[in-house]
Amino acid sequence: MTSAPKHTVMRDAPEWRKLVDDYRRNGVVAVPRLVSPSDIADVRVALRRYIRDTVPHLPPGDLVREADGVSVRNLWRMEKYDDYFAALGNREDILHVVGALLGGKPVLCAVETFNKPARHGSGVPQHQDNAYFCQDPPDMCTVWIAIDAATEQNGPVQYARGTTHTLLPHRASGIPGNSMVMSQLREYPAEQVTTAILEPGDAMIHHCQTVHWSTPNHTDYNRCGLLLVYRASHTRTDPALRELYTQAAAAFAARQDPGM
Ligand SMILES: O=C(O)CCC(=O)C(=O)O
């Protein structure tokens, strides 16, 4: 099995400071070309191999299919089953960026996908990831890497900037793969919303309390995202939040439960 190559995201000091400042202020930043075209080609090969060889042996909770019963909606905990994805999540250049944003030593918690296949890809309800992660302090983030182009039409992720300060109440959604939804859906002004229009290899990094969502994919084009989820080593699971999550998620395949 090939291991993910090492890379360096070259940034000068002002660019670096701006990235950290933007993340602190907005709770989401874009990192264009985080992954090179040739590495994206490798990721696609690895994903096809994973779906062919690993998926048939996964426990039910580590895979969610779309309503057609065939296409893959999500793959969870891929780092547990495949060295390639574990190595990708531990790539030094990515850990370096994430460490600066988290303000602590980054620990890889999960590698997962939101495949959003052409025509069948379902939407993702408004949520904050810390309703799943239950971490205190909420120093966790997700690196969302575009494997396909994400366009206005094929269900890009939308982020409401400046929403990290409070974890809003969530309830069970009944949606396999996204068991939690914000109890009260919010309409954010267009100027507060960042839409992740991305080319393959571009990434968005969002804080675990940034409100985000995405619409279904009715186009003929896939919109797969590979997600690397990290916490800072100083976070701890909040038992009260964990209890709320456990109750809400009980009936559904749990997403993003890195077992912390
Ligand atoms: O890919 C999507 O549509 C949703 C992604 C998401 O919920 C996340 O990045 O936490």
**Widest β-sheet, arrangement of strands:** 1-12-7-14-4-3-2
Strands, count: 15
* CATH hierarchy class name: Mainly Beta
State the distance separating the first and last CA atoms: 28 Å
List the helices and strands and how they pair.
Layout: H1 13-26, E1 28-31, H2 37-54, E2 63-65, E3 72-75, H3 78-81, H4 83-89, H5 92-102, E4 106-114, E5 124-127, H6 130-133, E6 135-136, E7 140-146, E8 157-160, E9 170-175, E10 178-182, E11 193-195, E12 203-207, E13 211-214, E14 225-232, E15 236-237, H7 239-249
Antiparallel strand pairs: 1-12, 2-3, 3-4, 4-14, 5-13, 6-15, 7-12, 7-14, 8-11, 8-13, 9-10
What would your notes on this structure say?
With 260 residues, the chain is an alpha+beta fold. It has one domain (13-249): Jelly Rolls, CATH 2.60.120. 27% of the residues lie in helices and 27% in strands. The protein has seven helices and 15 strands. The chain has helices at 13-26, 37-54, 78-81, 83-89, 92-102, 130-133, 239-249, and strands at 28-31, 63-65, 72-75, 106-114, 124-127, 135-136, 140-146, 157-160, 170-175, 178-182, 193-195, 203-207, 211-214, 225-232, 236-237. A seven-stranded antiparallel β-sheet has the order 1-12-7-14-4-3-2. Strand 2 (63-65) and strand 3 (72-75) form a beta hairpin. The two termini are 28 Å apart. The model is unreliable at 1-5 (pLDDT under 50). Bound molecules: 2-oxoglutaric acid. The site of 2-oxoglutaric acid has 11 residues, from strand 7, strand 13 and strand 14.
